[in-house]
Amino acid sequence: MKRVTPGIDIIDEVLDFGVKKGAIHLFTTDEKLNGNIFLLDKHRQNEVINFGSCSYLGLEFDTRLKQGAKDAIDNYGTQFSSSRAYVSTKHYAELEGLFDKIFDANAIVTPTTTLGHIGVIPMLVNDRDAIILDHQVHNSVQTAVNVVKTRGVYTELIRHNNMNALEDRIIALRSKYNRIWYMADGIYSMYGDATPVEHIYGLMEKYPEFHYYVDDAHGMSAYGKNGSGYVLSKKSIHEKMVIVTSLAKAFATGGGVAIFPTREMARKFRTTGGPINFSGPMQPAALGAAIASAKICLSPEITVMQEALSENIKYTKLALKKYNLPLVTQSESPIFFVGASLPKIGYSIVNKMMDRGFYLNVGIFPAVPMKNTGIRFTVTRLHTFKQIESMVAALAECHAEVLKEEDFSMEQIYKAFKMKAPLEQKLEEVMVAAEKQSALEVQHVSSINEVNKKEWDSLLGNRGTYNWEGLKFLEESFAGNLMPENNWEFDYLMIKDAQNKPVLATFLTTGIWKDDMLSPEGVSVQVEAKRKALKDPYYLTSKIVCMGSLLTEGDHLYIDRSSPYWKEAMAILLDKMSALQEQHNAAGTTIRDMVSGDDEMNAFLMDNGYFKVGLPDTHVVDSVNWTNKEEFLGRLTKRSQRHIKQDVLRHEDKYEVELVKNATEEEIKYWYQLYNNVKERSLLLNTFHLPYKVFENMAKHPDWEIVALKLKPELEKREERKPLAVMFSFLTEEKYNFMMVGIDYSFNEEYKCYKQAIYQVLERARKTGKKAVNLGLSASIEKQKYGAKPIEVVAYMQAKDNYSLEVVHAMNVMQPANV
Questions:
Q1: What is the domain extent for residue 423?
Q2: 604 and 628 share a domain?
Q3: pLDDT digits (tens, 9 = 90+) for 356-383
Q4: Which helix or strand (DSSP H or E) is residue 134 part of?
Q5: What 8-state DSSP symbol labels residue 24?
Q6: Does residue 320 sit within a domain?
Q7: Into how many domains does the chain fold?
Q8: Which in 198, 229, 481, 528 has the greatest CB count within 10 A?
Q9: Is residue 251 part of a domain?
Q10: Given 435, 455, 487, which residue is the final one in a domain?
Q11: d(Cα 757, Cα 22) in Å, to the nearest integer?
Q12: What phi, psi does 515 have (nearest 5°)?
């Protein structure tokens, strides 16, 4: 079984895709830079104006900073290679003294902002404290928090800037912890929105336990008296807060600085902040430039620079409004994010803009949800009004061109970002949509009863448990149940070309999923403990629109790849899933059980805003035509033969194999008990328990076969002779689909019930004349011993936001599941 590591492998694939699209990991080729125009990589000949710089005041070209760096090198060399625990250059003392004045607080310089967080947070947070992270807080803060999570410090995430949720969590946690640290950014780096400083200060005054930790990297120098940053432009430093900020953005040098309300806190950090004492120091050049920058911040000149930047920000907002571009966040920051929705749209716009002479960033997962891809750009003091005007005009043209090329509407973008579209624009989109024509005919119905049985089965009927009869069974079983997770919505899609030939067919279900369903078992253990502690079985659950269902597995998608319309048909499928997501107020969409290694399909789905995750391998025994045990064993490896003889065949004559017909209510109840035994032992795919109705319906359905394994009477020691194992399988014309098993584990060690169950499933498939057996997911090592071939499958997912994904991913470091 190959599972994609949550986080790293997904991010790697998404960003590598961006590299291949020519949108990220680029290089300048100029010999010398002086201003905001440069040449970008060897493949492009034209210069581009840089709208991707975070040096908001343009100080990197200031002669005073350059001279400060040169003087420091001349006097101290390129590096003063000593740990600060022993000796620091004189530049540190001068620079920290200047920062004390800038912030009117106590400052310690750090080699980088990230190392600042890694040093400050373990020093600041005690084991009896709790941490609440804004789920969009910078990755460097989350990295540092992982250090204290290993000590058992309680940590949780809340939705971005949700002050009501924050106060609720403060109230819930304040009696359990000494201090509650809320960690956030001053200005968020992707959308450019800001932390609600005044509200947070109000909470600090209201709750003695509540403290504030903020990364103000994008506010430094661009805001506040003496360039003290965004947060301190609103309020002076509070006794219950700590700020860490960056010197690599508007301050225009390098390194970071930690700002404390008391001298004692700064002293303690100076002695205990590991990266401060034991990491390499800042180079003299950076320190020399920083001193020059700090002196500018302490001069009246900083106000003039900030005002010039502010005028450029205002002008940019007016230009965006003039050209009707979908600006996602209205703020006063120099960061702008124009919605694109799908990655393919974002990549295409960025490349077109580079061709027209403007460099902008693509905002992509994991910084934003895949479906919330956008064009991120920044303005600095160095931009002229003419540059801004020409860039925004070009952006409007490229944006419109790409939407037309991709057959995507502005209204869809507004919907993806949950923004209200201008009325006149919405009307225009409706008119455009009315003019669209397709060579494909789309049938979309909500019950299998509305689908032609013969046609459906000819396309999908022999792949698994989802032939026409199997889907009718599912519809009847997942309706009218008491628990909401056991009631599903069904949708069926069949797309045909002008000759009435099917191009695509599939079915979709919408229901409640556990957000940790595809996570490692260790993560699900933590999530389940949290659900139990909260007494909330729906904690970290979401409504999902899924291709296929949670009770089917296999290739749920019929797609004729020889058709010239297959990509158009896939686009219709994705549009339908998106529409159903809105209709059912679902959190995301999932395309399940796609065969791994299909590069063309992978590129198509990633272009359209889906990221790939690994699933447990599925398993198939592709032939059961042996005539005796010796022939069966001859197909296995020597090692597997020994296993089957020792653990299976040795016990075979101890069992009585019963094909159950006309089951009683008591028998069905017992089956359900055995099923739950297995379900509660495995969190490999963490789903809700199936409803009892499923087992009632299986018992009377002609295509479901139920086989019970009982000990022979002479071996049975219980008062009542009951099955040790029950196997539930669905039969199609050619395949035997083993779907689930129930086990009495008190007998499993002695009689190897589970292993016997797999063998008897294969025997039943052979006796019923089936060509192959689908053995399903999980237990990969065990199933391969019987000759099953593992098939690597993947799912593709898309979510409205990354909150649940980030909460679950944050549990990869073990921590207590307190409330």
A1: 304-435
A2: no
A3: 999 999 999 888 888 899 999 999 999 9
A4: strand 130-134
A5: S
A6: yes
A7: 4
A8: 229
A9: yes
A10: 435
A11: 53
A12: -65, -20
The confidence score (pLDDT) of residue 424 equals 46
Q: What is the pLDDT of residue 278?
A: 77
Report if residue 8 sits inside a domain.
no
Instruction: Say whether both 664 and 776 belong to one domain.
Output: yes
Identify the pLDDT of residue 420: 81
For residue 645, the 8-state DSSP code is I
Helix (H) or strand (E) holding 731: strand 725-731
Query: For 95-109, 251-265, 428-442, 714-728, which range has the lowest pLDDT when averaged over its residues?
Result: 428-442
Which residues on adjacent β-strands are paired with residue 741? 727
Residues 118, 235 share a domain: yes
Gap between the Cα atoms of 470 and 485, Å rounded = 20
For 537-558, write each residue's pLDDT tens digit.
999 999 999 999 999 999 999 9
Q: Are residues 704 and 586 in the same domain?
A: no
- Per-residue pLDDT at 813: 47
Do 92 and 184 have their domain in common?
yes
**Residues 117 and 263 grouped into a single domain:** yes
Of 608, 590, 579, the residue nearest 543 (C-alpha): 590
Domain boundary among 405, 435, 465: 435
How do residues 737-790 score in pLDDT, each as one tens digit? 999 999 999 999 999 999 999 999 999 999 999 999 999 888 889 999 999 999
Residue 28 has phi, psi (to 5 degrees) of -80, 160
CA atoms within 13 A on the CB side of 333: 33
**CA-to-CA dists, residue 491 to 467, 478, 513, angstroms:** 14, 13, 17
CATH code where residue 717 lies: 3.40.630.30
Residue with tokens 């979908």: 326
